[in-house]
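Methods — Computational structure assignment.
A single polypeptide chain was analysed. Its primary sequence is given first, followed by the predicted tertiary structure written as structure tokens.
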Amino acid sequence: MTTARIAAISCTHCPHTDMEAVEWALSHAEKFKPTHFVMLGDLLEANAASKHGDKDEASHSLDDEYHAAAELLCQIRKRVKGASLHWMHGNHDDNLRIADPNRIPGKLRDIVDWNRHPSLGPELKHWKQVPYEKSRRGVLVIGQVVLAHGFDCGESSDRTEGIQVNNMAGGDAWRLVVRGHTHQPRPVTRLSMGKIELPMWYSNVGHMGPDKPPYAKRKDTSRWGNGLLLATTTTKRWVSTREWDATIERRGGWW
């Protein structure tokens, strides 16, 4: 295969997922016929396992989160038949593994391992997992498209992490870096230094969770929105120019 077709979404925050948004994304993805489907992180909310969480939002159990995530991933898998499936862990997912006794005590971390859950574990056998690390291990490269969940927030964080993530992946020119994390969709944007355009682009797929979750009652979420990456890229190892095309389909929010 010399061409890959990538569809990607992010931040479903199970069990708070906006299923209307997911249906919207999958209807587009089905028509696109991706060879790769990427869940860009924060599949889970993980608030049910935190002492820091909002009591209203944590009214569900961790078991509820795992069952909801298994149903969601199964639905995606059946709708994009034949695609290579990837789940990149996000910061919310990683909260279930991080060494923090206020979340999961050390002696219990093996027990809450999602790979051992009776419904999520079997579904995850169909998915390749990428750890949440700000390193090469935490980056997924498909042709000229580089994907990561994202680590920082802020108005310029897509641009800044576009550079950082691409450097972690080897620093090749002519690439597109795609992330989620901020819940704010951003179109495919060329990186520039002043008036000088550089051979690199970045974008953001937004989120698939609620637009006004309990923890964001006092936050401005007007720029939050649902997004979907649809990209076609060469898979040739050595290229000296841009050989990809991509768009961020958007539902809600504003650029």
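Note: The longest helix spans residues 62-79.
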